[in-house]
Structures are given as C-alpha cells and as structure tokens.
Amino acid sequence: RKEVEQDPGPFNVPEGATVAFNCTYSNSASQSFFWYRQDCRKEPKLLMSVYSSGNEDGRFTAQLNRASQYISLLIRDSKLSDSATYLCVVRVKSSGDKLTFGTGTRLAVRP
Amino acid sequence: NAGVTQTPKFRILKIGQSMTLQCTQDMNHNYMYWYRQDPGMGLKLIYYSVGAGITDKGEVPNGYNVSRSTTEDFPLRLELAAPSQTSVYFCASSPRIAGDNEQFFGPGTRLTVL
To answer: What residues does B57 pair with on adjacent strands?
Structure first.
C-alpha cells in the first residue's frame, strides 16, 4: 500500500462548480498534512496546511480525519485558474521529518 | 529575493556521462532538499541537508551525491548517468523543520539520459 494515495483524476468540472479531492495515508504516526498545488511543468507550491479542526482559505477548505486517515480538499466556485494538479503531502516525525508526497489529483476547469 | 534557483533548466546526457545540477537559495534557509519527479509518480526525496556541512540520504539516493559547503548552495552530482535517472529534479529549501515550515521549490531541471 502506498504511503499517500490519491485519485489521479482528471476531474473535469465547469466553472463555478464545487469539487472535492480525498487523500488517504497509511502511517498512523503522520503528524502534519498539507496540500500543494503544481501547475503543468512547474514546481509545487504550498496551497494550505491542514489542521485537525479543519481550515478554510477563501474558496478552499481542508479537512483532516485522523480516525479514518484521510485528508480532503474542497474547492468552491471553481475558476479556470484552479486547473492544476493538487498534491497531498504528509509528514511523519519518526522518519526524520521528511515529507511524503502523493502522486497528485489533476483538476481541469472548463469554461 | 530570487528564492530557489536551479540550473540548467534542461539537459540531455548520454549514458555514463556525469553532471552537476546546481541549486541556490537566497532566503538563508537551513534546510535544503533534492527531489525527483517521474511521470505519474510523487516526488521522491534523494538527499537533504539540515545545514552547511551536513547531508543525509533520502528515499532514493543511489547514483547521486551531494555537498553543502555553504548555506546558499546545494549541488546534486550524477556520476554515471543511467536511463533510469531521466526525470525532473526539484531543489527545495525551508527555514527549519520541513513539517513545520513551507518548502519552497525551484523551477526544476528536466534531465533526459539517452
């Protein structure tokens, strides 16, 4: 089983739609969680951290469910500019604080 | 600030050739990392450094070497290039512990080994 698993997509949605991505992680010792965004042929950039109580940043909402070991990202009112790959990222303190990246979920927002 | 810069942007190598991928950051970050990203795969950590003079292996270190003589620079060396090293290489830096701080990535180096 992969340490971090994501549905690769692509998710094709119209502008204005709400879309949600899930990510599961296998190591129960995982301590920190993030969503990174990666545009085509570009470097990853931090979108948001994921906190235990859930957190929101504008149109983006992240949730963490430790009991089921999954993380979610909800995007409301999708924009064309949201088209990208979204990487789920997990940190396990016992593994030297390294980050483990999922393979990413691709989102395509159409006009 | 330029952030994290990488050179070259693209490179084609023949099997058995050597090269150094350059990475420089101007944010005075202690931590630096090298990742590779293969199509359809997540980023894999090759090597990392927690400060000048200190380096450690990541998940996929075989075939690579690094050095960290200054805070700013973290070059990655490929000694005997193999087709399996065809990938996109990203350098990243963070202020301190990875999990507690954002990692800032460079634009990447696309390497093809033929």
So the answer is: B47
What's at B113, amino acid-wise?
Answer: V
Is A93 within 8 Å of B48 when comparing Cβ atoms?
Answer: no
With tokens 């999954």, the residue in question is A70
Say which residues have a Cβ less than 8 Å from residue A78's Cβ, sequence separation at least 6: A13, A14, A15, A16, A17, A18, A19, A107, A109
Could you say which DSSP state residue B73 is in?
B
| pLDDT, tens digit (0-9, with 9 covering 90-100), for A79-95 | 999 999 999 999 887 66
How far is Cα of residue B2 from the mean position of the Cα atoms in its chain? 17
A101 touches chain B (CB under 8 A): yes
Q: What is the pLDDT of residue B96?
A: 73
Measured between CB atoms, does A1 come within 8 Å of chain B? no
Dihedral in degrees, nearest 10, Cα atoms B70, B45, B109, A24: -140
Q: Quick one: B88 exposed, middle or buried, by C-beta within 10 A (0-12, 13-18, 19+)?
A: middle
Nearest to A89 by CA among B34, B42, B62: B42
Distances (CA, A) of A93 to A33, A42, A99, B45, B90: 12, 28, 9, 15, 22
Chain B CB within 8 Å of residue A100 CB: yes
Contact B34, B57 (CB under 8 A): no
Quick one: average pLDDT of A15-21? 97
pLDDT band of residue A2 (cuts 50, 70, 90) is confident
